[in-house]
Amino acid sequence: MIQKLVLAYSGGLDTSVILHWIRQHFGCEVVAYCADVGQGDETEGLEAKALATGASKLYLEDLREEFARDFAFPMMRANAIYEGYYLLGTSIARPAIARRQVEIALSEGADAVAHGATGKGNDQVRFELTFARLAPQLKVLAPWRHPEWPFRGRADMITYATEKRIPVPVTAEKPYSMDRNLLHVSYEGGVLEDPWQEPYGDMFRLTIAPENAPDRPEYVEVDYVHGDPVAINGEALSPAKLIERANQLAGHHGVGRVDLVENRYVGIKSRGVYEAPGVTLLLHAHRAIEQLTLDREVSHLRDGLVPRYAEMVYNGYWFAPEREALQALIDHAQQRVTGTARLKLYKGTVSIVGRKSPYSLYDSALASFERAGGYRQADAEGFIRLNGLRLRAIAPAESRG
Q: Could you tell me where the beta strands, DSSP code E, fall in 233-278?
């Protein structure tokens, strides 16, 4: 029997209906908790709404700097991308939100936590794996999976919200869901479930359409220290402020829109539309500094592990020992990733146009076509001969076969 429960609450359709339904169905005390991870003005008026819907209180926690510093930056040091496109904005926010939810539940003496993730999605896994690692003694309520949950989909929930006079930011005309944080905005569901349907032009929040972006390119410089961005155009900024500034600059030029069908951890293919202008800019800037400062074999080893790392983040294993071990390797490799990258933003694109570092491994004398610089070209003959030995052995073997 649940006595007190802490609900991860956003004030959107799902969690608003869930809050009301839990109070009606279980009769337990519900403490609403909303993490501000950069969703902008979406938190305005949230306390009054939560209390009116049945919560005993609302925790509205500003986690923006913590989210950027402790979660986003470590992930960005890995250049993590899931399935070639997705920069993991929602994926990395969930463990940040869930960690604070656990802390509140323990301080409140609650015996359970709840979330609004559906039984078909990834977020249920991300929340609950974090709960399991940080507070396995807490009960977990996932209403979408409860046998007495009466709603088949969001259309039913819109009807319920209308009947109960619960204000929600979703209409039948545009029934897609939106999730926003410092790193990106994601859109899914409703009309977007048709992978042939182009997204609404007025849907996007962070980016100008590339065709409407300025006709002149803009140059941006990003300073890095030990793999983390610390300043943009010479202005030192905190982690959260830096991401916000990167969003403004890149979004103004239509950078960072992605439309993909991804493979969810639960086995379903899902269509998602994302806009991540700032992280896209910072990914290219980080790569530019690494080109100068990372040893070849270290770089290739790290890049070979990135798909596995990205899967860990996407699937919800942020607090798992394998992610922590891999993070230690990544962070060790970032010790000399310090310098400045110069990039050009233009009509939806980011181009690296310059990079410099006090730890640069680049030797212009060695690289030059105009001078030897200590490199003996004759040495290449033996190098090629030795590396070609196994290839030379293949043709005679094939002819015998």
A: 235-236, 257-263, 269-275
